[in-house]
Design brief:
single chain, alpha+beta, Tumour Suppressor Smad4, six-stranded antiparallel sheet, 5 helices, 38% strand, elongated
């Protein structure tokens, strides 16, 4: 018996009605189905043991949060889009029962997506918290968003360059269509293995994104520009934040873990770009 776990961004009537519709279909066909609600102000969801499939109801943000929180379950995920874009979501409500039947039959493909992991160390070399993981991106930015930062970037222990700007994005291939895209970074096939490094509002002419090997390890050191330098922060998928101070180093590299997405749609990478990212 397959165990389906449904994750929704909120417990609105529309979302709960859809969950009940899915649960009714699945349980009538011998599957087990339970659900949980992601709440911004509460602790992460506790995912039951023995989950076979995680379905998310919402948009890309819901899918990303569920992926981050469910990593220990190793269950594959698929999103049902009720958001604005839904670039990562493979399903919509128009063919829901048909798609649920395919999931019950197990006749689907799995796509592995790479993750980034990062950790912050202070100037004395002491870790500031545990390793964090990101499906989309790791972003360094000014704490108040209004102050130019000075950073030195190292790749595999070798200095790449020093940088003045509003911050830096380190994106996975999956995250290439998120903040990275808005900042002028390239779109890459989400199945590839690489790390995108895209500066935010660089104070230098001709600054561009750099594509790094997935096995590279990146370090970014926070350098003071003046005595009253204020603090910055690093975020992991826009949810977990670690405050940065002068002398701190942020280390980013490929995670040994992966996330698996269920693929039902026949849309390939180029089809998805055309249908999801073209101008209205």
């Amino acid at each position: 018996m397959k165990h389906f776990y449904i994750v929704t961004k909120d417990d609105s009537k529309d979302n709960l009605d859809l969950i009940l519709r899915m649960r009714s279909y699945l349980t009538e066909r011998g599957a087990k189905c339970s659900y949980g609600v992601l709440r911004q102000e509460e602790a992460p969801l506790e995912y039951p043991e023995g989950i076979d499939v995680i379905l998310t109801v919402g948009g890309d943000g819901t899918l990303i949060r569920a992926a981050d929180q469910s990593m220990g379950s190793h269950a594959p995920l698929i999103g049902i889009n009720r958001g604005h874009l839904g670039y990562l979501c493979d399903l919509d409500e128009s063919n829901l029962e048909e798609s649920l039947q395919v999931l019950l039959d197990g006749s689907y493909e799995l796509e592995e997506r790479m993750l980034l992991t990062g950790r912050v160390y202070n100037k004395d070399g002491n870790a500031k918290g545990d390793y964090q993981v990101a499906l989309n991106d790791v972003v360094i930015s000014s704490y108040n968003g209004l102050q130019v930062m000075h950073m030195v970037v190292y790749v595999n222990g070798e200095m790449l360059y020093s940088f003045n700007g509003d911050g830096m994005i380190f994106a996975t291939p999956t995250g290439s269509t998120a903040y990275n895209l808005s900042a002028g970074g390239p779109i890459v096939d989400p199945k590839t293995q690489l790390i995108l490094m895209t500066p935010l509002n660089a104070h230098v002419v001709g600054s561009r994104s750099i594509i790094l090997d997935a096995e590279d390890e990146i370090a970014v050191e926070m350098i003071p520009r003046r005595e009253d330098e204020k603090k910055a922060a690093v975020s992991f998928d826009g949810s977990t934040y670690v405050q940065l101070e002068v002398g701190d180093r942020v280390y980013v590299k490929k995670s040994p873990e992966v996330i698996r997405f269920i693929k039902l749609s026949r849309m390939n990478f180029l089809d998805r770009i055309r249908s999801k990212l073209q101008a209205d």
